[in-house]
């Protein structure tokens, strides 16, 4: 089982790239897509809007927990409810985390949640997690073993700076990350490529691919249409496919 986390600065294209990855990887693999952004929109991008999140279940649990007696009951309460909110698309499943309990909270419910995710992961070959912008999701440590941390950057030094900070924080938090790579998105020309390449090299960041600015993708997003409608020969789709091949994860 391979866990891929998509991270990066705000608005760089994390959700769109996560959706394309899920689409491409699920051609050959059993994929679970996890929307870990409280502002859930991976599900929309994949054309499967979720109605209930893990956060909703947690709230229900906190309301009812005094009536639930033994340990085992709490665990199975979570498991059965989490299972029930997994949306099953044709080629992949999707679950949304919803809102967290709050920073620095090591509540019992969060621990059970982590256990449930670890258990769920065992049912799939690939888990693709879309996260909210910035570093907070790492601090929450819902995932402690990451095979591939893909940091999406736009065409900016700040995008790469965020990648650098994410790498540092993952180290500090002792999150096991096997590989970290940067995807540069919304790239418009050769000049952008060269500039980003040089900057990444200096920062010792692995730049694994360039995704061009794609008018078709932007048009779908403008109309709130899912990325499942993006054609296979569109520039962004082809570029993400190349990244998958280069990473050898397809
Ligand atoms: N390759 C691309 N070509 C054109 N537009 C793109 C591309 N990638 C992303 N966009 C546009 O950039 C905007 C942000 O994309 P997206 O929502 O995927 O970013 P995000 O990093 O998930 O944002 P957030 O930090 O809010 O979660 C959207 O309007 C989207 O249409
Ligand atoms: Mg997003």
Automatic annotation (TrEMBL):
InterPro entries: CobQ/CobB/MinD/ParA_Nub-bd_dom, CooC, P-loop_NTPase, ParA/MinD_ATPase. Gene3D superfamilies: P-loop containing nucleotide triphosphate hydrolases. Residues 4-226 form the CobQ/CobB/MinD/ParA nucleotide binding domain. One of its GO terms (molecular function) is ATP hydrolysis activity. Pfam families: CbiA. One of its GO terms (biological process) is negative regulation of cell division. GO terms for cellular component: cytoplasmic side of plasma membrane; cytosol. It comes from the Archaea. Keywords: ATP-binding, Nucleotide-binding. This is ATP-binding protein. It comes from Candidatus Syntropharchaeum caldarium. The lineage of its organism: Archaea, Methanobacteriati, Methanobacteriota, Stenosarchaea group, Methanomicrobia.
């Amino acid at each position: 089982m391979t866990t891929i986390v998509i991270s990066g600065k705000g608005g760089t294209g994390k959700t769109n790239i996560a959706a394309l990855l899920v689409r491409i990887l699920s051609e050959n693999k059993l994929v679970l897509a996890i929307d870990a952004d409280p502002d859930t929109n991976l599900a929309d991008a994949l054309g499967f809007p979720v109605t209930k999140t893990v956060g909703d279940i947690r709230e229900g649990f906190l309301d009812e927990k005094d009536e639930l007696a033994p340990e085992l009951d709490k665990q199975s309460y979570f498991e059965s409810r989490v299972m029930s909110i997994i949306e099953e698309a044709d080629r992949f499943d999707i679950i949304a985390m919803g809102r967290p309990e709050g920073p620095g909270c090591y509540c019992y419910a969060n621990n059970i949640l982590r256990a449930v995710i670890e258990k769920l992961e065992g049912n799939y070959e690939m888990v693709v997690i879309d996260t909210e912008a910035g570093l907070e999701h790492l601090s929450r440590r819902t995932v402690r073993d990451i095979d591939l941390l893909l940091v999406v950057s736009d065409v900016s030094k700040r995008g790469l700076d965020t990648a650098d900070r994410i790498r540092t924080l993952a180290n500090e938090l002792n999150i096991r990350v096997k590989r970290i790579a940067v995807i540069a998105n919304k790239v418009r020309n050769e000049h952008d490529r060269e500039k980003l390449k040089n900057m990444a090299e200096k920062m010792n960041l692995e730049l694994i691919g360039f995704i061009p600015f794609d008018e078709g993708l932007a048009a779908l997003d403008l109309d709130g249409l899912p990325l499942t409608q993006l054609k296979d020969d569109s520039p962004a789709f082809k570029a993400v496919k190349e990244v998958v091949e280069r990473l050898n994860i397809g």
